[in-house]
Design a protein that fits this description.
The structure is a single chain. By secondary structure, the chain is an alpha/beta fold. It folds into 2 domains: about 260 residues, Rossmann fold (3-Layer(aba) Sandwich); about 200 residues, N-(1-d-carboxylethyl)-l-norvaline Dehydrogenase, domain 2 (Orthogonal Bundle), CATH 1.10.1040.10. The chain is about 50% helix and about 15% strand. The strands form 3 sheets. The protein has a 6-stranded parallel sheet with strand order 5-2-1-6-7-8. A 4-stranded mixed sheet has the order 4-3-11-10, with helices on one face. A 3-stranded mixed sheet has the order 9-12-13. The model has no long low-confidence stretch (mean pLDDT about 95).
């Protein structure tokens, strides 16, 4: 069997119109898929250059395959079981800025570039005080993008037509606004000229967006079987569900450059995405975050195992229908939640819990903590399932730092010190909940929350996660 390559599949490179910060499974099955569909519809004809997001990424493998890979949609669609294969040929190359930062900055000189997309996880759109103007190779994403945009501004002498459409896909509230604010912050700190600030504001379009598609990534157990079907070897197979939704808050004028309305996918341009965002982040993403760490502690490996387990199915439903939704405002929330649970049951995704657990501290803040705070505000007490989910998170990190836990080094170092040095569970939970580096605020101030988390944490250590969950669902 031949390896996938452009001569084998007769796929030519496209003009470089898109720069993508990140090269992981989600972006390839979401952004890569969308731009492929636009190219196939003859309405865009643009290529993507990906930028490796972490030091140990997929850049070399992407380049070995000349940017080609296969997206596999699997699941239930309109009552029918489907399996669709889409060959993605819109990736031109991947650049590793940790090894070749200058090559990354060279892209700023490309006159055909139109769009920047990103998914650097919830932790990515943040400020770092270690990113001064004198730094030659920036690590922080907003600093890296500030450097890039300034180089573009200088190279094209402030040409208004060389501004870009910037579409961040990170799952944080007002992601485009926050990214722009950080770029302006760095621009001020670096003492960049006022004309650049004007060009940044007037010639570039920063949008807030919401993405919705479950992507499980490389199907390790079935890869050989799938490649036999395809008749080529593909080491970047990317499995996802058929469902796809992209909500973009912005002026429909962006469709003049980016004809997303012509690719046949569910892409919404709106002047207010808040209802879409709140519903998706709190119910779908929140259900993931409140359950996958506890699920791992119980010995489960995949999401579909959780929702098909009677105990965990009741746990997830209790958290969604008795705590998350009651703390929200909106229409058809129950219907959306039932659809989400059905999507979780997709038997073809093999969505690993440990893959979802990446950067769980930041995910808990943006996905679950918001529901906890609104629940406390509305009912004047802490929600039991969501409080338990933080106790499970702490137990997960206690068991897995140094092995299966994957999060920001600063968070892991701080937690490691607390696990080692706190004298008892009460001191540990108090120190963790009051740590503003972790949460951005003091969670001990939430009524009844610290007591709930402490009680559940002690019970997990004493009796095991499964016993505590059984008690929760029978309460």
């Amino acid at each position: 069997m031949n390896n996938i390559n452009r001569s084998l599949k007769l796929k030519n490179m496209k003009d470089e119109k898109v720069l993508m910060f990140g090269e992981g499974n989600f972006l390839r099955a979401f952004i890569g898929f969308i731009f492929q569909k636009m190219n196939d519809s003859k309405c865009f004809n643009g290529g993507i250059t990906a930028l490796q997001g972490v030091e140990n990424g997929l850049c070399d493998l992407i380049n070995q395959q000349q940017g080609l890979y296969t997206v596999i949609e699997r699941g239930i669609e309109k009552g029918e079981t489907i399996e669709r294969f889409t060959l993605i040929d819109c990736f031109n190359k991947c650049i590793n800025p940790y090894k070749d930062y200058d090559k990354y900055l060279e892209i700023a000189k490309n006159s055909q570039l139109q769009v920047i997309v990103s998914n650097t996880t919830e932790f990515g759109i943040c400020y770092s005080e270690n990113e001064g103007k004198e730094i030659i190779e920036h690590k922080n994403f907003p600093a890296k993008l500030t450097d890039f945009l300034y180089k573009r501004y200088k190279y094209f002498n402030g040409n208004k037509d060389k501004g870009l459409i910037i579409l961040p896909c990170e799952l944080i509230d007002r992601n485009g606004d926050k990214l722009k604010d950080l770029i302006l912050k760095y621009s001020k700190e670096w003492d960049l000229e006022s004309d650049f600030i004007k060009w940044l504001n007037e010639s570039n379009t920063f949008t807030n967006t919401l993405v919705d598609r479950i992507v499980s990534g490389y199907p390790k157990a079935e890869a050989d079987e799938i490649c036999n079907k395809l008749e080529y070897k593909d080491n970047l197979l990317d499995v996802c569900e058929p469902f796809l939704l992209w909500v973009i808050e912005g002026d429909k004028k962006i469709l003049n450059k980016l004809p997303l309305d012509k690719c046949g996918l569910d892409i919404v341009i709106t002047d207010n995405l808040e209802t879409y965002r709140t519903r998706k982040v709190r119910i779908l993403n929140g259900a993931h975050t409140m359950s996958v760490l506890a699920g791992h502690l119980c010995g489960f490996e995949f999401v579909e195992q959780l929702v098909n387990d009677d105990m965990f199915n009741k746990y997830i439903k209790k958290g969604i229908f008795e705590e998350i939704i009651p703390a929200m405002n909106g229409e058809k929330l129950n219907e959306y939640a039932l659809d989400v649970i059905e999507r979780f049951k997709n038997p073809y995704l093999n969505h690993r819990l440990l893959n979802i657990s990446l950067n769980s501290i930041s995910k808990f803040k943006s996905r679950v903590l918001v529901s906890i705070k609104d629940y406390v505000l509305k009912f004047n007490k802490a929600p039991k399932v969501l409080s338990f989910s933080l106790a499970a998170l702490i137990s997960f990190y206690k068991n897995g730092i140094g092995s299966f836990v994957n999060d920001d080094a600063e968070f892991l170092d701080g937690l490691s010190n607390l696990f080692k040095n706190c004298k008892n569970e009460k001191e540990l939970i108090n120190n963790i909940l009051s740590d503003k580096i972790l949460w951005g605020e003091d969670l001990t101030l939430l009524k009844d929350f610290e007591a709930q988390v402490l009680s559940y944490y002690i019970d997990i250590q004493s009796y095991g996660t499964e016993v505590v969950i059984k008690g929760l669902i029978n309460d």
